[in-house]
Design a protein that fits this description.
Order of helices and strands: EEEEEEHEEHEEEHHHHHHEH
Organism: Nocardioides islandensis
Pfam families: DUF4331 (PF14224)
Biased composition (Basic and acidic residues): 1-15
Protein name: DUF4331 domain-containing protein
Helix content: 10-25%
InterPro entries: DUF4331 (IPR025566)
Radius of gyration: 22 Å
Number of strands: 12
Length: 464
């Protein structure tokens, strides 16, 4: 999946496992940018009595680079604390939760959001944007959370620096046919062309009906650029920011029998990071995935060889005999993928567009904040002519699996090598899925309401 259970060690620590990162100019407030980091993958809505929640012992962060060197210039830190109101009951709630301050919610969660401005690796300024902020409960069901849309809206908080924040459960907007892709690289719409042929069919969304926990912040563009301006020209280097998310734990943990929980000690150590979808999932070899999660993006040059010659590009001609003859013969380094994933796309490749951040090769979402939201977005993003979509940042509706498949299959090679002619199958490559979970909304925090435990049956989702 995008980054759900993408590495052996983090798959054992779901509360710190980042699943998707998004960065886009807000469609309802185009002078703002929305940054979203999702955690805790594959949440079954009926997961009681101990429902999902953020980790009090995890430091969640969204980082922004605005100087083109892949280091963090601004970080937004989120720290959570959980309270148990009634220690004599096993119940998550003792009656209907009609507001996020309801005493019937037995395990409310609160958080502090802090902005860190960096100078090199030193903290230059630390600003608490909000504290004591409430999350909503999870969507238990119509008796326990009878008006979930209201609970969700109460959890959108205005904080300092003109920002809004939301932290809580949402529907997972990512979609992918895992059952097919990991069955020897099969794409159901192209089943008949596979080495082991089967009838063509529509894809099956493996993330159907699952929820995630979302950290979202919407902040004025001027608060993120290097000089405090709102760039108007898409060709200005100041218009591009790099974004990634991380989760960190204390260097050591010990079981405290008196407290009945693990207690962390020592400095924070990064255990998860995520920017471009599918990077660690598909590009990085199994033996290096955990190490990748612990490293900063400015140290990503060591992974360049896997981007320049991705394993999947070599497998496609083998798995689909005769479908990718031009790709099979192409032996040059994949400069197109290098630009998309590691440096950004420079001027002159796509007319009127660039999201280049310099020579430092690093996995970041690169967002050109001078490109306005699209009135009618195309979920295939930049490759379909919609410059407001991935790989220019990433919107919740962008079909990143299809975009990535077609890019790896060679569709983007002519951007940097006009002599290459993509195979016809490159523009047809797709896993055949759509977001069949709760739909994306048109207002902050943009991801749909989570499926409720009572309402959701296996394979379906319903928020209310």
């Amino acid at each position: 999946m995008s980054s759900h259970r993408e590495a052996p060690e983090i798959s054992k620590d779901p509360v710190a496992d980042g699943t998707d990162t998004y960065a886009f100019v807000s469609p309802d407030r185009p002078d703002h940018v929305t940054l979203i980091a999702n955690f805790i993958p594959l949440q079954k809505p009926d997961g009681g009595p101990n429902f999902y929640e953020f980790g009090d012992d995890v430091l969640y962060e969204i980082h922004v680079n605005n100087r083109g060197d892949a280091t963090r210039d601004v970080s937004f830190q989120f720290k959570f604390s959980t309270k148990v109101r009634n220690d004599k009951t096993f119940l998550y709630n003792t009656g209907p939760i009609t507001s996020i301050a309801s005493p019937n919610w037995n395990r409310p969660q609160f958080y502090t959001v802090t902005r860190i401005d960096w100078k090199g690796d030193k903290v230059r300024k630390e600003t608490v944007l909000g504290k004591g902020l409430r999350t909503p409960p999870v969507n238990v069901g119509p008796r326990s959370t009878p008006n979930y849309a209201k609970l969700s809206s109460e959890a959108v908080h205005a904080v300092k620096q003109g920002a809004r924040v939301f932290c809580g459960q949402r529907a997972d907007a990512f979609h992918v046919d895992l059952g097919s892709i990991f069955d020897l690289g099969a794409l159901r719409p192209l089943n008949e062309a596979h080495l082991i042929s089967m009838p063509n069919m529509n894809g099956v969304n493996s993330v159907q009906s699952y929820n995630v926990h979302t950290i979202a912040i919407e902040i004025p563009i001027k608060q993120l650029t290097r000089d405090g301006s709102q760039p108007k020209s898409a060709l200005s280097p100041k218009a591009v920011i790099g974004v990634w998310a991380t989760a960190s734990r204390r260097k050591s943990r010990m079981w405290d029998k008196d407290k009945g929980k693990y207690v962390g000690h020592g400095p924070w150590e990064q255990v998860s990071r995520l920017a471009n979808p599918l990077f660690n999932e598909v590009i990085v070899p199994m033996a290096e995935k955990d190490e990748w999660n612990a490293r900063p993006p400015w140290d990503d040059k060591r992974y360049t060889k896997y981007v320049n010659k991705p394993e999947l590009a070599g497998l496609l001609p083998v798995l689909y005999p005769g479908a990718f003859p031009n790709l099979a013969k192409y032996d040059k380094p994949r400069a197109d993928l290098n630009a998309v994933l590691l440096t950004g796309i420079p001027k002159g490749v796509v007319p009127g567009f660039q999201n280049f951040t310099g020579a430092t090769q690093a996995d970041m979402l690169r967002l050109n904040v001078a490109i306005p939201p699209t009135a009618q977005p195309n979920d295939l993003g930049l490759v379909a002519g919609d410059a407001a979509g991935w790989p220019n940042g990433r919107r919740p509706n962008d079909d990143v699996v299809t975009i990535a498949l077609r890019a790896v299959a060679g569709l983007t090679i002519p951007l940097v090598d006009p002599s290459f002619k993509p195979d016809g199958a490159a523009s047809a490559a797709a896993d055949g899925t759509t977001n069949t979970n709760a739909g994306v909304t048109d207002s902050f925090p943009f991801l749909g309401l989570p499926g409720g435990g009572y309402q959701t049956a296996p394979g379906t989702t319903k928020a209310s």
